[in-house]
Amino acid sequence: MTTEEFILQHRKDDVRQLAFQKDKYPEIDMSYVLDQIEGWQRACTKLPEWAATDGIVFPPHISMEQCSSESTALYKQKLSKNLMQEMGMSELIDLTAGFGVDFSYMAKNFKKAIYVERQSHLCEIAKHNLELLDLKHCEVRNADGVEYLNSLEVGKGRLLYLDPARRDGNGAKVFGIEDCTPNVLEIEQQLLDKADVVMVKLSPMLDIHAAMKSLQSITQIHIVSVGNECKELLLVLSKAHTSPVSVFCVNDGQSFDYEYENVENTILLGANAKEFDEGETFAYLYEPNASIMKAGCFGELSARFEVKSIGANSHLFVSNKAVEDFPGRSFRVEAISTMNKKELKKVLAGIDKANIAVRNFPLSVAELRKRLKMKDGGNVYIFATTLGEKDHRLFVCSKI
To answer: Do 333 and 382 contact (CB within 8 A), yes or no?
Structure first.
């Protein structure tokens, strides 16, 4: 049995159990086999197009863990195409190509595409996989990204992409621009001297306001979430940068964009406790998606959709009318209650399970669930938050 046949036969097996059986198959390179099986299993969810392509070679665990998902790679493919068309570019160079997922999707847009990676084993994998993916116009270079950058001639019609390594010398995760390798702050001018546009992928943990202060040439910021989980921050740099900087908050099919400079000048519309007490009808509640939460553009959101914030730190919004295309989750408010026991008993009568979330509230989800004697799940959604300074309220909702 060949190694390839062994992989196909066992690729749905538990790799941990398979590792214990290596002595049974002395003719098989079990270390390589386990990487391929585990890689394929991860790819079925993370990279379904690659998993469905026979013969794709997967790298060791760490590279599979760090590579982009298909959905985020497709977003960069779309973004790079827009930039290419806008700036008239024909060449892509990925200076930190790694496993090559982002590179392979973006390369489809360009006449010339160069993959640069300092780890030779990843270069060999890339040569093999790019051929299988019918990306025959791509070149693979085994080189350090910064050294390769320095060797480039000043040129037009070029997009440079890099995804700096976000681990320090001890393998611990880092997210500050200056802590990543390469340090984009140190080579920003070199990058811009060699390309029309530079796209940098950074940690979703990075504060975008800090990035704006650190880098002088940002033209666009893209906050990319998948399944309401913030996955990555993309910065687009250009020598021809002008204000205002455009920010794009993306979550699956939802997109909300605004001008960064407007954030501090936009007033957040707020609903106060008095409005609720006086019988103001807020029939709908809205929860912004993860990218909006990351951006913190709540004033822009409030103004654009005419929704009112429930407290400065709740990041929940209400309205007396339905709002279409809100970038997040939408709920119908069925009841609003204080923490008064009699009121709670009345409002929650007949409800024995609910999905509970707390925002700017003194109790944790577990503590509140215990107090309310609620099981998890069902079709009821309870948002616990604070109006003003100390007015704790529960919003009992149904999802729209």
So the answer is: no
**CB-facing half-sphere around the CA of 304: CA atoms within 13 A:** 16
Please tell me what DSSP assigns to residue 165. B
Alpha helices in 205-326 (DSSP H): 208-214, 273-277, 290-295, 298-305
Structure tokens at 212: 């704006």
Query: pLDDT tens, 307-317?
Result: 999 887 889 99
HSE-CB at 397 with a 13 A cutoff on CA atoms is 26
CB 284 within 8 A of CB 319: yes
Give the pLDDT band of residue 239 (cuts 50, 70, 90). confident
Residues 6+ apart with CB under 8 A from 302: 266, 268, 269, 308, 309, 317
Residue 327, both tokens: 């970038």
Shortest CA distance to 358 belongs to which of 385, 388, 332?
Answer: 385
What is the DSSP-derived secondary structure letter of residue 262?
Answer: G
249, 223 contact by CB (below 8 A): yes
**102: DSSP letter:** H
- Could you report how far apart the first and last alpha carbons of the chain are, in Å? 55
Judge whether 161 and 93 are in contact, CB under 8 Å. yes
Handedness of CA 113, 119, 120, 124 (dihedral sign): negative
Summarize pLDDT for 306-350 with one digit per residue, the tens: 999 988 788 999 999 999 999 999 999 999 999 999 999 999 999
Vertex 311 angle, CA 310 and 312, to 5°: 125
How many angstroms separate the CA atoms of 222 and 299, rounded?
A: 19
Q: Return the H-helix or E-strand segment holding 34.
A: helix 30-46
DSSP three-state, residue 242: coil
pLDDT in tens, 43-88: 999 999 999 999 999 998 888 988 999 999 999 999 999 999 999 9
Q: What's the whole-number mean pLDDT along residues 162-169?
A: 87
- Establish how many alpha carbons lie within 13 A of residue 243's alpha carbon, considering only the half-sphere containing its beta carbon: 5
Using the predicted structure, report yes or no on whether residue 277 has a pLDDT greater than 60: no
Q: How confident is the model at residue 249 (pLDDT cuts 50, 70, 90)?
A: very high
Helix (H, G, I), strand (E, B) or coil at 226: strand
Contact between residue 281 and residue 315 where contact means Cβ atoms under 8 Å apart: no
